[in-house]
Design a protein that fits this description.
Structural class: mainly alpha
Distance between the termini: 15 Å
Strand content: under 5%
Shape: elongated
Radius of gyration: 19 Å
Number of helices: 4
Order of helices and strands: HHHH
């Protein structure tokens, strides 16, 4: 399996579905931040509050990762020896 080229990645970023999903993730992240600021995650025991906050922090980081993803970050994440060396569609892997 080949990695997408930067042009393919950029086309994916500007696709209407991708834009809609990324906007939704941004909204969800902001909702979570507002809830946290409003103290919504402190109505528990100390240990539960810690776990809820850690979980929500991870969720926010996941949202941010997907909404702010660049081509360079993407290719560094998939560098597993099988995907790097993206070639244009139709080009031979023997080049």
């Amino acid at each position: 399996m080949r990695a997408p080229t930067e042009e393919e990645f950029q086309a994916w970023l500007t696709h209407p579905v991708t834009e809609a999903v990324r906007n939704l993730l941004k909204e969800k992240r902001e909702e979570l931040r507002q809830s946290w600021e409003g103290g919504s995650f402190t109505d528990y025991s100390k240990d539960t509050t810690i776990l809820v906050n850690v979980g929500n922090l991870g969720t926010c980081k996941g949202y941010a990762f997907l909404t702010d993803l660049t081509y360079e970050q993407f290719t560094s994440e998939i560098d597993d020896g099988e995907h790097i060396g993206a070639k244009a569609p139709g080009s031979s892997s023997l080049d």
